[in-house]
Amino acid sequence: MKYVDEYRDGATAAALTERIKRTVSRPWTVMEVCGGQTHAIVRFGLDALLPSALTLVHGPGCPVCVTPIGIIDQALQLASLPQVIFCSFGDMLRVPGCQGNLFDVKAAGGDVRIIYSPLDALELARANPDRQVVCFAVGFETTAPAYAMAAIQARRQGLSNFSLLAAHVLVPPAMEAILSAPGCLVQGFLAAGHVCTVMGYEEYEDLARRYRVPIVVTGFEPIDILEGIAMVVSQLEAGRAGVENQYSRSVRREGNVAAQAAVREVFEPTLRAWRGIGEIPLSGLALTAAYVDLDATVRFRDPLSRFAPAGGEDPDCQSGLVLQGLLKPPDCSAFATRCTPENPLGAPMVSGEGACAAYYRYRRRNDGSGAR
User: Fold this and answer.
1) CA-closest candidate to residue 196, choices 259, 103, 114
2) Range 290-310 average pLDDT
3) 171, 195 in Cβ contact below 8 A?
4) Angle, alpha carbons 7-138-34 (nearest 5°)
């Protein structure tokens, strides 16, 4: 299939690997910030093809994984309300909060629906005028336009029974948080091609300049990733630090201007806590004043205020270190023992883009440990 087979070609991969080996002359550490890229790296063993001096680390590239436990608990409470139809993409349903997950709420009688588009939730609101439909808005900049359009359509259609539980997070502030952290070892980034397809990459240019770090916008197939790594390494070895675009078949510097306009109409940047990492200024999206009536935390302020969650993160879960690139999943003592996709301690083990789930699926030995 075009744009699949040609980006998984073995001869091209070997040539790129050889190019990287010839270029690398000293140790470098490169981070990818996309769960899809993480899964491709682990699935195809791309890291094993690289010279030992080049280290790949996995960053907070999974929006499901970094959704804070406080918002998960709000989702559980909203989904438990008898008048609510709670809509979410499927990978959020097993993410643990303080008191279970959305599957537990569904099993207890909550009306939890899996959707494939925010417009599915909008259709449910039209079809159920006597119910309140809450849509769990999770994702990076990639999915924000779809939720923005759902909000715009709800307003145009006069739907008073549709609202969003906003949990979007933004990639550039997270990258800056990593770069500004004490002891940061990351020297180059692979930026997520789908995020940049929407937002462009102008924001990354300031990061590259201020922190003297190369950033290459990269796709998701093996050839994309190997070429992106080769471009980062070339900059590092030459002492350059700029933004380059490997994923030119999809990404333009300015991004999708129409999608950006829709996002700006509905959302605005806000302080957001990242699960396992902490608060990052202006790293989330909240509904603007013009759309605040569609904010589920405002519409259901009273029932949410009566909810006092007990507990917190499992002390054995080290997903925060995994999300910051400070720990590989197999190095967590709970990996594939106490923590599995069926019984996850943290979101990276259950999400379809989580690093722990990738290692569990592709690099778990028969003894239950993670292969290196």
Assistant:
1) 259
2) 89
3) yes
4) 30
Q: Which tokens belong to 18?
A: 């050889």
Burial group, residue 303, by CB count within 10 angstroms (0-12, 13-18, 19+): middle
3-state secondary structure 245-277: ECCCCCCCCCCCHHHHHHHHHHEEEEEEEECCC
The answer to whether the pTM exceeds 0.85 is: yes
CA distance 326 to 120: 38
| Sequence letter at residue 244 | E
Ordered DSSP codes for 153-178: HHHHTT-TTEEEEE--B-HHHHHHHH
Q: Distance between CA 244 and CA 237 in Å, rounded?
A: 15
Q: Longest Cα pair distance anywhere in the chain, in angstroms?
A: 66
Identify whether the C-beta of residue 307 lies closer than 8 Å to the C-beta of residue 73: yes
Of the candidates 237, 192, 249, which has an alpha carbon nearest to the alpha carbon of residue 216? Answer: 192
* Upper half-sphere CA count for residue 184 (Cβ side, 13 Å): 18
Distance CA 202, CA 122 (A): 33
Token look-up 């909008």 returns 122
Side chain identity at residue 112, one-letter code = V
User: Across-strand partners of 286?
Assistant: 268
Number of alpha carbons in the 13 Å side-chain half-sphere of residue 248: 5
pLDDT digits (tens, 9 = 90+) for 323-365: 999 999 999 999 999 999 988 998 999 888 899 999 999 998 6
Rounded Cα–Cα distance for residues 351 and 260 (Å): 26
End-to-end, the C-alpha distance of the chain in Å comes to: 31
pLDDT digits (tens, 9 = 90+) for 89-147: 998 999 999 889 999 999 999 999 999 999 999 999 999 999 999 999 999 999 999 99
Q: Which two tokens stand for residue 56?
A: 């790949």
Give the model confidence (pLDDT) of 185-225 as tens digits: 999 999 999 999 999 999 999 999 999 999 999 999 999 99
Structure tokens at 202: 């102008």
Quick one: which of 29, 27, 22, 26 has its CA closest to 213?
29
More confident: 183 or 365: 183
pLDDT per position as a tens digit, 17-73: 999 999 999 999 999 999 999 999 999 999 999 999 999 999 999 999 999 999 999
Cα(212)–Cα(215) distance, integer angstroms: 10
